[in-house]
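Appendix C reproduces, verbatim, an entry submitted by the partner laboratory led by Prof. M.T., so that reviewers can inspect both the input and the predicted structure.
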Amino acid sequence: MSDVVAGRSSADAAPRLDYVTCASASGLHRMAYWEWGDPGNDRVVVCVHGLTRTGRDFDPLARVLQKDYRVVCPDVVGRGRSDWLINPAGYVVPQYVADMVTLLARLNPARLDWIGTSMGGLIGLALAGALTASPALRPPRGPWGVGDGPDIPLARLVLNDVGPALDAGGLSRISLYVGEDKRFGSFQQAVDYVHAMSKGFGPHDAAGWEDLTRDVFHEQDGQWVRHYDLRIAQPFAQQTPVALEAAEQVLWQAWDHWSGESLVLRGEQSDILSSDTLRQMLARNSRARGVEFPGVGHAPTLRTAEQIGVVQDFLLPA
């Protein structure tokens, strides 16, 4: 299958790189984000990548959406061009949500839509949960009439191959490689590795696999090494069944109370989002719809005409 856009040859196809300073319990860090479209457009879509990926995963989709949106694709802390955390215990969804809130305060959108692949979808769902929290969980009004809660105009969610419940088999598969210190003597070897380890992405042409590798391996001292802090594996590996169950309950609550429109994408062969979980999501939230892509596992890359078209039709209905 051919990718919609392969390579990055034209100057007008390049995003702008910027940074926002965020805070964690151990200090300050910068989060990088890639921006497409008119910076004055107050209609914003934020696209957030999976556990070991970067914001450049969304390049083909962003090229299409930038006509209507200011498209912002962050590198989650510890990945890509963003700083690494001093304490790896901070590589968890609550920290990522806090960073995104800082980013959104800078962007100040009049309308916000969210596209999240895997981990990026969990961040979006957790943010939606925070926005729909009961009044008892919101800050009280202050003497000047503030304190009604965050003013983040989140309207639509696209959850790409993720939901409140994650399959144990897929989590186990990811845990086997996320902390591995992989190094290669050539870029082509890195491409071959990404291709072999990412069968769930579905079929892509040679240029597409190169593009999917270019930002997740970089050259350092003559070797091609991973772009991310390998310590992101530590909190991932330390999750207990009890903690996972508690997190699942929180995410289901967020999903049940989310009143905006949602599109849930699933790779038909996914080992992270089961068909049963997708059915439950659609049954429990009447404003959600689902689409499954054949020949794809975890996760659809949103690079093909079919996949991009589904997202575009949802965000920009006729």
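Confidence is low (pLDDT under 50) at residues 5-11. Additional entries are available on request from the coordinating office.
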